[in-house]
Amino acid sequence: MTETDVPAVSAIRVTGWKAAYAGIVPQSFLDGMTVEAETQQRCHHFKRSSEGITNLVAVDTHGRVVGWACLGPFRGDGTITNAGELYALYVQPSLIGSGIGRTLLEAVHAQAHADGFDLVLLWVLTDNTTARRFYERAGYAADGAVQADDYDGVSLSEVRYRRTL
C-alpha cells in the first residue's frame, strides 16, 4: 500500500462497514462514518507508519484498489507470543465472494510467516456470521477469548479467532 492508496482504502473500509455491519452496529455509528474523515485518519496513521505493521492492497486489472488488509504484532496482554494480528480485511462490497478476500488473506499469511509469526489472531464481531464463516473456511477457529467494544453507547461482543501457520 502506498499513501496514494489511502483514499481508495478509506472508501472500501467505510462502505464495507456500512454493508457488513448494518443491523449489527448501531445505525447512528454507521451514519457518522464518512470517507473524508476516514481518509484523514488513515493518512495520519499511514504517515506514522508504525513499526512492524504491513498494509496490503488488492488491485483489479485496471490498477484500482479493491481490497485492503492490515497485519501487525498481536496487541494482547503478552501471554501469547510470536503471534501476528490481522487488524483489518475489507473488500469492496460489490466484489465480495469473488476471491479477493481469500487472496488477501493468503498474502497476509505469507507476510506473517515472513515476519516470523507462528500464529495469526483476529477479532470478529460475534454477530458477524458472514465474516466468521469466511475465517472458519480459511482454517481459523474461535479460541474462547471474548471482548467488548462500545459503538455509540452500545456494547458489542467480539470473538477471537486463531490460525497456526
Describe this protein with a few key phrases.
about 160 residues, alpha+beta, Aminopeptidase, 6-stranded mixed sheet, 5 helices, about 35% helix, globular
Briefly note the CATH topology name: Aminopeptidase
Question: In total, how many domains does the architecture comprise?
Answer: 1
Instruction: Note the gap between the termini.
Output: 23 Å
Biggest sheet, spatial arrangement of strands = 1-2-3-4-6-5
Low-confidence stretches: none
Q: State the shape.
A: globular
Can you give the mean pLDDT?
A: 95
Per CATH, the architecture is 3-Layer(aba) Sandwich
Instruction: Kindly report the name of the CATH homologous superfamily.
Output: Gcn5-related N-acetyltransferase (GNAT)
Class from helix and strand fractions: alpha+beta
The rounded Rg comes to 15 Å
The profile of the biggest β sheet is: 6 strands, mixed
Which CATH class is shown? Alpha Beta
Tally of individual helices: 5
Strand segment tally: 6
- What pattern of helices and strands is seen along the backbone? HHHEEEHEHEE
User: Quaternary status of these chains?
Assistant: single chain
Q: Report helical residue fraction.
A: 25-40%
Beta-strand fraction estimate: 25-35%
Can you walk me through this structure?
The chain is an alpha+beta fold and 165 residues long. It has one domain: Gcn5-related N-acetyltransferase (GNAT) (Aminopeptidase). 35% of the residues lie in helices and 32% in strands. The chain is built from five helices and six strands. The chain has a six-stranded mixed β-sheet. Strand 3 (83-91), helix 4 (100-114) and strand 4 (119-125) form a beta-alpha-beta unit. Helix 1 crosses helix 3 (35-48). It is globular, with a radius of gyration of 15 Å. The two termini are 23 Å apart. The relative contact order is 0.15.
